[in-house]
Write a structure and sequence with these properties.
single chain; alpha/beta; Rossmann fold; 2 domains; five-stranded parallel sheet; 11 helices; about 50% helix; binds cytidine-5'-monophosphate
Length: about 230
């Protein structure tokens, strides 16, 4: 089997609010490939640790939690966004909050937690192909991916996009507060020792500031189908 053609992977990495989630889902749908939302895994572990009352800086306890948490993605029956089940509970809405993002970012800096999630992520690589959305998809998890994209946008634009998303969900947030949270999370993600947020050397950089969704999707698809 060693001569089998590897399942193609498109990695889409970038900071929060760069549009990765939306773009990855649309590109995966267009290509008919599977989708890995790796951020949801870190969010799920942070959430499970919080629910269990763990101290989020207790590496041993959080690592045990990462190994013990059952995370499942379920297609919604009405075709709307995929639901994320954490230990059998639909935690989709809780996982989207900025609090869940901050908890994810805190536990994601622990090498043993990242290690605990590697096999699960590799398991998503199935025929006919995979779109992998995250921070270290092209650098650590799928370094051999044939296609790599790094999406960016200015912090101000990313805060604006997040603000709109969260407001639509009826959450009470301020633009200035969001921008501060996003910048703090980015700097923690970019400066951590393991799997920091950075483009793979062979990634195509796409700055989405001022670009519409369709335009970004077309740019990313052009990387796979030039
Ligand atoms: O992409 P999302 O905002 O859902 O990710 C939440 C957090 O999970 C990020 O801020 C980052 O700290 C962490 N993460 C990571 N590696 C990934 C995906 C997410 O460290 N591949």
């Amino acid at each position: 089997m060693s001569h089998a053609v590897p399942v193609p992977v498109l990695t889409i990495d970038g900071p929060s609010g760069s549009g990765k989630g939306t773009i990855s889902a649309l590109v995966a749908e267009h290509l008919g490939w599977r989708l890995l939302d790796s951020g949801a895994l870190y969010r799920a572990v942070g959430y499970a640790a919080g629910m269990a009352g763990l101290d989020l800086s207790d590496v041993e306890a959080v690592t045990r939690c990462a190994h013990g948490t059952k995370i499942q993605f379920r297609a919604a029956p009405d075709g709307s966004a995929t639901r994320v089940m954490v230990n059998g509970h639909d935690a989709t809405d809780e996982l989207r909050t900025e609090t869940a993002g901050a908890a994810a970012s805190a536990i994601a800096s622990m090498p043993s937690v990242r290690e605990a999630l590697v096999a699960l992520q590799l398991g998503f690589r199935k025929s006919p192909g995979l779109v992998a959305d995250g921070r270290d998809m092209g650098t650590v998890i799928f370094p051999d991916a044939a296609f790599k994209v790094f999406l960016t946008a200015s912090a101000a634009e990313r805060a604006k996009r997040r603000y709109k998303q969260l407001k639509e969900k009826g959450l009470s947030v301020t633009l200035a507060g969001l921008q501060r949270e996003i910048e703090a999370r980015d700097s923690r993600d970019a400066s951590r020792a393991v799997a920091p947020l950075k483009p793979a050397e062979d990634a195509v950089l796409v700055d989405t500031t001022g670009m519409g969704i369709d335009e970004v999707v077309a740019k990313v698809l052009a990387v796979v189908q030039p």
